[in-house]
Amino acid sequence: MTNAQLISQDPGWIIALKGLIIFAACVFLTIMSVWGERRIVARMQQRSGPNRVGKFGLLQALVDGVKLALKEDLIPKAADRIVFVIAPIISTTACFMAFAVIPMTGPVNFFGQQTAMQLTDLSVGVLYVLAIASVGVYGIVLAGWSSGSTYPLLGGLRSSAQVISYEVAMGLSLVAVFIYAGSMSTSEIVAAQDQWWYAVVLFPSFVIYAISMVGETNRAPFDLAEAEGELVGGFHTEYSSLKFALFFLSEYVNIIAVSALATTLFLGGYRALPGLGFTEQWLGGWFTLVWFFVKVLAFFFVFVWLRGTLPRLRYDQFMKFGWKVLIPFSLVWILVVATLRVMSQQNAPQALIFAFVFTVALLYLAVTSLIDRQKTKLAEAAKIIDTTQPSFPVPAIPTSRAEQLNG
């Protein structure tokens, strides 16, 4: 039976229990992610990282949560109190809701009931995740607006523009997956990757999604919505105590959510690595949960790696890259994938498919060469210096030590 058929037979108590387990897993992963990020970045920078609270500093994130809970909860006088309180709740809730359609295991025995670790299986599951991610940005925008302060407002506006830009590229990168899988259901997309992962078959889509998900989560080098250099703390500048903790929680849960979606769409989901398919039956099918979280944590390590190595981009560079590079390339790639898919389904000759790919490659090289030549001409034009004499007197530059002292 498929995941969708198994889930449709779940009684209410199993649905509630699975929801509670997923919520607890997300909170636990957040605590461990904070600890892991500090330890990894500390190792990259030759520091120790948290090592005092608990063995290897494992309780540091938990202690930080208690500290935030005990801090004074302040609300600015100029803030809209209702929206100010609701904003972090919106962001956090949206992040948790994204896990409703993520398949974490195949068929397993759950308290005597045959099911799968997935709350529901929608026919448009991926679109549901994208919609929830779009709603999550409202929490950031409303937090910046309701604070009644300039810097949070600028951070909220930046975030809205950033998410719009990179969600377009993210959505376009998934179109190729829909074309190959023939479905928008997350479980069916995982089932369609039984031979080859889409990270291999659709490598350009995978790269575009990987870049877009970093921009979507406001992480370095795209953390421009909370750039402390020019915006103090960005949209959450005026937040403290548990409200700030909710934003902190939503950021890390969002990282795990986009990593889980990337795992589902491009890395075969809960399926084992190539050549290790026999392990999927271990522990009655529960070992697939290990494979799922290994892939998710690999994505999380990349997030931390980027934060520890890359500097923050300028805002104009960030927006230019999204609109002028990722989106146009995504559109061209969709046309190529759709054409190749139709040709393969109609049993087109291999020579014709090869000729099409070769033609597209030549066009790409020609356009790239043309753009490079244009950039070279602009750079050479910028080097031309106006050598005309100024209309005002300019003192002579001293040429000797004596002239410098006398001058």
UniProtKB/TrEMBL annotation:
GO terms for biological process: aerobic respiration. It comes from the Bacteria. Pfam families: NADHdh. Keywords: Cell membrane, Membrane, NAD, Quinone, Translocase, Transmembrane, Transmembrane helix, Ubiquinone. InterPro entries: NADH_UbQ_OxRdtase_su1/FPO, NADH_UbQ_OxRdtase_su1_CS. The chain crosses the membrane at residues 12-35, 82-102, 122-143, 164-183, 195-214, 252-273, 285-306, 326-344, 350-371. GO terms for cellular component: plasma membrane. PANTHER family: NADH DEHYDROGENASE SUBUNIT 1, NADH-UBIQUINONE OXIDOREDUCTASE CHAIN 1. Belongs to the complex I subunit 1 family. This is NADH-quinone oxidoreductase subunit H. It comes from Candidatus Nanopelagicus limnae.
